[in-house]
Amino acid sequence: MRIRATVAAVSGALALSAFAVPAAHAATPAAPAVTFSNMKVNSGKAATVGATTTVKLPVTYTVTHASGLDLSTIENGPLIYRGTSPQDYSTEIISDDQGTCTAASTTTLNCKATISVPASELYNSDAGTWKAGGLAVDTKTGGQKWQGDLGTIAIRRQAKLTADATPEPVKKGKTITVTGKLTRADWESGKYVALGGQSVKLQFRKNGTTTYTTIKTIKSSSTGALKTTVTASVDGYYRYSFAGIATTSTVSATGDFVDVQ
After folding, report:
1. Which keywords, in A-to-Z order, does the entry hold (predicted)?
2. Rg (CA), the chain
3. Which residues of the chain have pLDDT under 50?
4. What is the rounded distance in angstroms from the CA atom of residue 43 to the CA atom of residue 49?
5. Contacts of 25 (CB under 8 A, 6+ apart)
6. Strands 47-49 and 164-166: what pairing?
7. Domain boundary at 120, 139, 156, which?
8. What distance in Å separates the CA atoms of residue 160 and residue 51, rounded to the nearest whole number?
């Protein structure tokens, strides 16, 4: 990912954050004696990133340390990563700033932070499941504690969906044609592109009610186009609904009202 390309030259620093990391030492300094746990990214929910948006993910976590440990020089923060190791700069995004922590006991801190995920720094192949991790840095000695496998979060490309039912109005018993288009965010171009070959539900909501019912399921064409027909019966709203896939968000079109006469 491009966002990590600038990090490799920073000798272990949290280059995307406000962490302060001293110059490299001749000998590898000891890692801070802390442990991360109870990490929850975005309240455990999947994150949807549009073609040009930046999504800010709230993170909560616990830091456990030895009683009496001097924390004045130790900074910490969460991260998400795609590779096998949280220490791989090419596949990680680290918190905007170090965590804000409150002592819960003499040996534990309850912390929170924010991780920003900008579409402009993502490849489409980055969509999917990410792992959560943490990094603590001793700003005096340069010691670093990296910890991974603290949970997962799905990062998905945003989907968009339209629906247009015609003619309007229509006589009862006549044919209604419902067209639409399914697209999703292309992070690399900053645009929305066709999403073809996907199962999409045509749904109907009778005027005066609040619940949509699925009428049929069709597939989007190679251009993302959707088209099918139904028989007019009563006034109501037609929409398409897409359940999403591992890399792409769920979405339902705005219902299009048809007056049946």
Report:
1. Signal
2. 25
3. 1-18, 20-25
4. 16
5. 141, 142
6. unpaired
7. 156
8. 11
CB contact at 8 A, 227 and 178: yes
Percent of the chain as helix, strand, coil, to the nearest 5: 5, 50, 45
Per DSSP, 248 falls in state B
Amino acid at 218: I
Q: Is 103 exposed, middle or buried (0-12, 13-18, 19+ CB in 10 A)?
A: exposed
Return the pLDDT at 6.
Answer: 32
As given in the structure block, the two tokens for residue 146 are: 């990296």
User: Which tokens sit at 48?
Assistant: 């949807």
User: Do 111 and 195 belong to one domain?
Assistant: no
Enclosing domain of residue 214: 159-258
Question: Taking the model in full, what pTM does it have?
Answer: 0.87
Give the torsion through C-alpha atoms of 112, 251, 53, 14, to 10 deg.
40
Q: Tokens representing 46?
A: 């999947």
- Hey, what are 25's tokens? 């030492």
What is the CB neighbour count within 10 angstroms for residue 110?
A: 16
Tell whether 240 and 190 lie within a shared domain.
Answer: yes
